[in-house]
Design brief:
It comes from Geobacter pickeringii. The protein is α/β, with parallel strands linked by helices. It has 13 helices and 21 strands. Bound molecules: pyridoxal-5'-phosphate and lysine. The site of lysine has 8 residues, from α11.
Length: about 425
C-alpha cells in the first residue's frame, strides 16, 4: 500500500494532508511515512526468515534520528561509513554488536572510536587499512572483528557513479589479492577474522549480479576453510533498487529467495546493508512554486527547493515523480522544474510533462527518502529544510527548518556560520 495518496484533490502522507504540514512547518520540507518505513523493514527481514541474519541499515541513505530509531526499534543494526554515522547511530540506540563499518578512508580517530564502542566488524577495504586497524587495536589492547570487503569484479548494471563492484572501482580488495590478505590478517595482532563482505553497487534492478558475486565469494570461502580460516559472517552489502519511474526491481522476497538459496550450504550468519530499499519510497520532498516563466519553446517552474536540497537529479540525472499537492492546475505543461541555485545544473525535473503549476502551488517530489536530505547542503548559503515524520493522523517535526528569519533575529547563528 502506498502511504502517499490523494484523498479527493489533496495529497496525503498516511492520514495527514501535506498542505497542512506546509502550513505548519513551511516549505521546503521532507516528509516521511513511519508506516512505509516499518513495512519496508519487515518485508526485507521476512525475505530472510529462513536464514540467520542481521539487517544493518545503511545510515548514509537517511541518517535522521527518527528514521534510525524506527529501524533500530525493529531490531535492525547499522552499516556506517564514518565516525559521524557511528555517533548518530549510537544516539539513536544502536546495539554496537550490530554495527558494521565500511568505507575506503577510515581515519585513526574513527577506528579508535569504533574499537572503543565495540562494534561487530570493520569491513576492510585495503591492505594498508588492515595493517592500521591491527596497529591501533594492539596499542589499545582491543581486538577488532574484521571482514574483508572483496571486490568481485561483477557489473551491477547501474549508474557508473554508484557502481562499486568492478575491479577498477576504488572499493574493496580484489578477489585475487583477498586470499593472501586473509592469511595475513589471521597472523596479525589485534585482529579477529570473522567475516567476508561485498557491496557491488546501488540501485540494482536484477538479482543476478548479487548471486554471481556470492558465487565468486563462495569459492574463496571454501579455499579459506581448507586453510583453517573459518568465517562466521557473510555480509552481502546493500544495493537492492526501488521503482522511481519504469524500473522493475525484484521484490525483497524474490531477492531473499535467491540469496538464501545461494548461501544456505555455507551455514553462515548473513548481514545485509540496505539503504535505498528501506527509505527511498518512504519519503517525499514538498516545495513551493515561486515563479513561472515561458521562453520560446521552453517553460520554467521556479521552486523554493534546489539541487542543494535534493542533489540526485543534478548528480545522476535521476528521475523523481512529480505530483501536485492540490490538484487544481489547468492541465499539463512540458517544463523544467528548477531551483534558486546559481547553476544551470540546478534542476529537479528536465523537459517533462508536469501539472501546470502556478505561483504558490505546492509540488511533491516522490521517492526522495533515500539520499535526499542526507545529501543536502547549504550551498548558496541556503538554510537547510525541515523534516517531518508522519504516523497515522499525527506528525512530528523531526528536524526544524533553518530560516533566514532566525538569523536576522540572532538565533541559531553559530550553527549556520
Ligand atoms: C558499503 C555500502 N553498503 C550499503 C550501501 C547502501 O546501498 P543502497 O542504498 O543501494 O542499499 C552502500 C551504498 O551504495 C555502500 O556503499
Ligand atoms: N547517492 C546515490 C547512492 C549512493 C550509494 C552509496 N554507496 C544516489 O542517490 O543514488
Amino acid at each position: 500500500m502506498n502511504h502517499f495518496q490523494y484523498k479527493g484533490n489533496e495529497l496525503f502522507a498516511e492520514d495527514v494532508s501535506l498542505k497542512e504540514i506546509v502550513a505548519r512547518v513551511g516549505s521546503p520540507v521532507y516528509v516521511y511515512s513511519h508506516a512505509t518505513l516499518t513495512r519496508h523493514f519487515k518485508a526485507f527481514d521476512e525475505a530472510f526468515a529462513g536464514a540467520p541474519h542481521t539487517i544493518c541499515y545503511s545510515v548514509k541513505a537517511n541518517s535522521t534520528q527518527s528514521v534510525l530509531k524506527t529501524f533500530i526499534n525493529l531490531g535492525g543494526g547499522v552499516d556506517i561509513v564514518s565516525g559521524g554515522e557511528l555517533y548518530r547511530a549510537l544516539k539513536a540506540g544502536a546495539d554496537p554488536k550490530k554495527v558494521v563499518y565500511s568505507g575506503v578512508g577510515k581515519k585513526d580517530d574513527e577506528i579508535e572510536y569504533a574499537l572503543n564502542t565495540g562494534i561487530l566488524m570493520f569491513n576492510v577495504e585495503s591492505e594498508q587499512e588492515l595493517t592500521r586497524i591491527s596497529e591501533i587495536a594492539s596499542r589499545m589492547g582491543k581486538t577488532a572483528g574484521i571482514a574483508i570487503r572483496v571486490n568481485p569484479d561483477v557489473d551491477p548494471g547501474t549508474h557508473p557513479y554508484i557502481t562499486t563492484g568492478l575491479k577498477n572501482a576504488k572499493f574493496g580488495i580484489t578477489i585475487d589479492r583477498a586470499m593472501e590478505e586473509y592469511v595475513r590478517a589471521k597472523s596479525l595482532p589485534g585482529i579477529d577474522v570473522i567475516g567476508i563482505d561485498m557491496h557491488i553497487g546501488s540501485q540494482l534492478t536484477k538479482v543476478n549480479p548479487f548471486v554471481d558475486s556470492i558465487e565468486k565469494l563462495k569459492v574463496m570461502i571454501g579455499k579459506l576453510r581448507s586453510q583453517g580460516i573459518d568465517l562466521q559472517y557473510f555480509d552481502c552489502g546493500g544495493g537492492l533498487g526501488i521503482q522511481y519511474n519504469a524500473e522493475e526491481p525484484p521484490l525483497p522476497a524474490d531477492y531473499g529467495k535467491e540469496i538464501v538459496a545461494a548461501t544456505k550450504d555455507l551455514g553462515m550468519h548473513l548481514v545485509f546493508e540496505p539503504g535505498r530499499n528501506l527509505v527511498g519510497n518512504a519519503g517525499i520532498l514538498v516545495a513551493k512554486t515561486l515563479y513561472t516563466k515561458a521562453r520560446d519553446e521552453k517553460n520554467f517552474i521556479m521552486i523554493d527547493a534546489g539541487m542543494n536540497d535534493l542533489a540526485r537529479p543534478a548528480l545522476y540525472d535521476s528521475y523523481h515523480g512529480v505530483q501536485a499537492v492540490t490538484r487544481d492546475q489547468d492541465g499539463m505543461i512540458v517544463a523544467d522544474i528548477v531551483g534558486p541555485i546559481c547553476e544551470s545544473g540546478d534542476f529537479l525535473v528536465k523537459g517533462r510533462e508536469v501539472p501546470m503549476f502556478k505561483q504558490g502551488d505546492l509540488v511533491a517530489f516522490l521517492s526522495a527518502g533515500a539520499y535526499g536530505f542526507a545529501m543536502s547542503s547549504s550551498y548558496n548559503s541556503r538554510p537547510r529544510v525541515a523534516e517531518v515524520m508522519v504516523k497515522g493522523d499525527k506528525f512530528e517535526v523531526v528536524r526544524e527548518r533553518e530560516t533566514v528569519e532566525d538569523l536576522i533575529k540572532g538565533e541559531k547563528v553559530a550553527s549556520f556560520l
